Automatic annotation (TrEMBL), chain A:
One of its GO terms (molecular function) is oxidoreductase activity. It comes from Alburnus alburnus. The keyword Translocase applies. Residues 92-225 form the Cytochrome oxidase subunit II copper A binding domain. This is Cytochrome c oxidase subunit 2. InterPro entries: CcO_II (IPR045187), CcO_II-like_C (IPR002429), CcO_II_C (IPR034210), Copper_CuA (IPR001505), Cupredoxin (IPR008972), Cyt_c_oxidase_su2 (IPR014222), Cyt_c_oxidase_su2_TM_dom (IPR011759), Cyt_c_oxidase_su2_TM_sf (IPR036257). PANTHER family: CYTOCHROME C OXIDASE SUBUNIT 2, CYTOCHROME C OXIDASE, SUBUNIT II. Keywords: Copper, Electron transport, Magnesium, Membrane, Metal-binding, Mitochondrion, Mitochondrion inner membrane, Respiratory chain, Translocase, Transmembrane, Transmembrane helix, Transport. Belongs to the cytochrome c oxidase subunit 2 family. Component of the cytochrome c oxidase, the last enzyme in the mitochondrial electron transport chain which drives oxidative phosphorylation. The respiratory chain contains 3 multisubunit complexes succinate dehydrogenase (complex II, CII), ubiquinol-cytochrome c oxidoreductase (cytochrome b-c1 complex, complex III, CIII) and cytochrome c oxidase (complex IV, CIV), that cooperate to transfer electrons derived from NADH and succinate to molecular oxygen, creating an electrochemical gradient over the inner membrane that drives transmembrane transport and the ATP synthase. The keyword Nucleus does not apply. The gene is COX2.
From TrEMBL, chain B:
It is found in: Mitochondrion. Belongs to the cytochrome c oxidase subunit 6B. This is Cytochrome c oxidase subunit. The keyword Mitochondrion applies. Component of the cytochrome c oxidase, the last enzyme in the mitochondrial electron transport chain which drives oxidative phosphorylation. Its main location: mitochondrion. InterPro entries: COX6B-like (IPR048280), CX6/COA6-like_sf (IPR036549), Cyt_c_oxidase_su6B (IPR003213).
Amino acid sequence: MAHPAQMGFQDAATPVMEELLHFHDHALMIVYLISTMVFYIIVAMVTTELTNKYILDSQEIEIMWTALPAIILVLIAMPSIRVLYLMDEINDPHLTIKAMGHQWYWSYEYTDYENLTFDSYMTPTQDLTPGQFRLLETDHRMVVPTDAPIRVLVSAEDVLHSWAVPSLGVKMDAVPGRLNQTAFIASRAGVFYGQCSEICGANHSFMPIVVEAVPLEHFEIWTAMMMEDV
Amino acid sequence: MADVIEDKIKNYRTAPFDARFPNTNQTRNCFQNYLDFHRCNKALSSKGQETSPCDWYQRVYKSLCPLSWVEKWDGQIEDGSFPGKI
């Protein structure tokens, strides 16, 4: 989850999010370098008392400030396209989960074998136990096994919603009547938080998403337990 | 042929990648498998054959389609108001 006064991304929990993070670091560093250089030049020009009234043109500098930006753009584009295609790779999922957006909660359906379905409501602030996170905890978490490609099919039952979990590098709009596919592989066990990312009414800010990644044996125990309860 | 399908169903994990639906929008994937299941049932039972090969389509649409959609379509089939051609 996010920390107070956090500036950067949340820690990545999937290989794709890691790549996005590294690309962002790369692109941002280029932005910092260019901005620093431009700022320095502006300050130097504003604070000098030297003047030269006779510069008309210069072939060399024109070539420099055309070629260098072109090269910089290529250096940004190459990793960008790499990550884009990485995100688009065909994967062979081990598990399909449907995340359905409602006003104002998510429901999850695990229907590959039996029909396991449950709702996930936000835990009200007065019901939080010490150590839990305000406006982020839910009564039921979407549990997934680690190191397995998971396909998530996102849709909605009423209005637009959006299923987003920053640590997993996933955001997918939930559109009524449409089934949007996204996928991820949780490379480490943990609890990952997200929030509805499309305005959907009064309690749009109060329908969070919690994904809990656990080893496969624990996932199987959890599914058996959930089937008993339901 | 039926053995191949039976094997695939036995080793079923989840709906595999379908090259006919390579993009983000999987709505048609779900609907197509639902249609194919019912068409397969209708075709095989009209010839008096066993409908177990049709189970593949059923597994796939159960994996992909939201339960509310399936319930609605099942109801429509019973009423005779299902919009798809079976």
